Structure formats: C-alpha cells, structure tokens
Amino acid sequence: MRQRQSIRIPWRFGTATSAALLVALLVAVAAAPASADRIDGTARTAHTVHAYEKARARVDRLKDERAPAERVRSAEDRRKTLRDRLWDELRRSQRALYDPVAVDRSGRAGRCPRGKSPKKKGSWQTPVANYWLTAGFAAGGDRWRHRHTGQDFAVNSGTPVRSVGPGTVWATTCGDGFGNQVLVRHRDGYFTQYAHLSRIDVRKGQRVTAGRRLGLSGATGNVTGPHLHFEVRITPYLGSAVPPLPWLARHGVRVR
C-alpha cells in the first residue's frame, strides 16, 4: 500500500497571508478523489499553487523595494515557470474530466443562453451590487462534495454581474456544476470566474472593461438558490483557486 507523504512548506508570509494560503492548500488537497494517485497529484498541484503565490509576492516585494532589474526579472521568470507548470497539469486533468472550460471554451456545444452587454467604463469593483456574503472560500458543508473554492454573493435572479476589472473573456461555458459561467483573464495573469448565471452577455475573446456586464445572476448548475459564485484562479482551470477577497483587496476593492 502506498503511504501518503507529508509536504513541508516554509511559511515566510505575514500571519494573515500565510493562513489564507494554508486554507487554499487544504482546499486543493481536499478536492481530490480518495485514490492514492489522485491524492499525490492533487497535493502536488496544491503545492504548486502555494509556490506560485509565494513567487508572485516576491516579485511584488522586489518591485516595491526597487531591486535591481536582474533580480526582478529572475523572480518573474520563476513565477512564470510555476504558472506554466500548473497550467499544463490542470489542463490535462480537466480535459480528462470533460470540464467545459477545458473542452468547450466558447460554450457552443452547450448552447448557453446569450444576451448583449452595453459598453461601460469604470474602476475595479465588486462583481455585483446590493449583495450579502454567504459561503466563503474554503467553507465546508454538505452542499459541496469538497470545500468551497470561491466566494458566494447572494443576490436576486437577474442581477447584473460585472467584470471586477479590465481583461479578456477567456471562456463562456455551461452544462456542469457551475451552470452558465464566464471566465475573464486579467492583466496580472489571474482569472476570475462568474458562475450560476441565468444568461451570458459576452463572447470568448471579447475585451471587457471594469464594470462591463458579463451576464445576469441566476441559479443554474449545482445550487440551492440564486447567487453568484465568484472565484479567482491562477489558471482558467478548477484546482488553481486562491482566496478571492485578498486578491480583490490588492486591486483596491473592499468587500463587506
């Protein structure tokens, strides 16, 4: 019988950041089926997620300290290498699981419900207005097979869902537990996910500004009622989520 091996990780962040990343690590590990091979693979992915966030924080710190360009470039290369490794690992695994984000980015096969979105310019913001927060990142409970991978915003069905910042629509899909969903890639390389929509108002490859309407909230997929599931990922694939509220805070967005 294969034995599970523990992973030792040197925590050098501040207390709050380390706690948030530890939760992210545990969420990713908890998401694996109970076979030894899957546990090993998921633990490896979770370790890469943590390593990436650590590398990203190092790049930010070196820039703030105005470190020599060579040191910044070396740190940035390390960050990109980790992202590419994570991307390749998750793309393969999610294709094998027929994740719509991995196999049908445009949503054409699923015939997702469509609308149109008027142009709007704005600054970084919350994805919906007039909300209240429900299930948070890493929350447990019998509503999920594993721990929660994002932040839920409870809103009425039909509430406009907007891009939190400028970026490009990476995928518009439907048909799995996330229901109708949109993924946006932002300039810092991270992806935001907007799930359980009743309608999608943008197309794959479309550029969006902060505040651009992506669709309308709803209750599609695996839900108990209308809400927006908001997630932040290092890659577009499930398994690379990071705590969303600290990420929004880095962009000046306060969620209350």
Structural class: alpha+beta
Give the integer mean of the pLDDT values.
Answer: 84
Low-confidence stretches: 1-18, 25-36
CATH architecture tag of the largest domain: Distorted Sandwich
Description:
The chain has 256 residues and is of the alpha+beta class. The protein folds into 2 domains: 15-96; 105-250, Glucose Permease (Domain IIA) (Distorted Sandwich). The protein has helices spanning 15-30, 36-64, 69-96, 100-103, 244-250, and strands spanning 132-133, 151-154, 160-162, 167-173, 180-186, 191-200, 207-208, 213-217, 228-233, 241-242. Strands 1, 2, 3, 4, 5, 6, 7, 8, 9 and 10 form a 10-stranded antiparallel β-sheet that branches. Strand 5 (180-186) and strand 6 (191-200) form a beta hairpin. The radius of gyration is 18 Å and the shape is globular. The termini are far apart. Residues 1-18 and 25-36 have low confidence and may be disordered.
Topology of this structure?
Layout: H1 15-30, H2 36-64, H3 69-96, H4 100-103, E1 132-133, E2 151-154, E3 160-162, E4 167-173, E5 180-186, E6 191-200, E7 207-208, E8 213-217, E9 228-233, E10 241-242, H5 244-250
Antiparallel strand pairs: 1-2, 2-9, 3-8, 4-5, 4-7, 5-6, 6-8, 6-9, 9-10
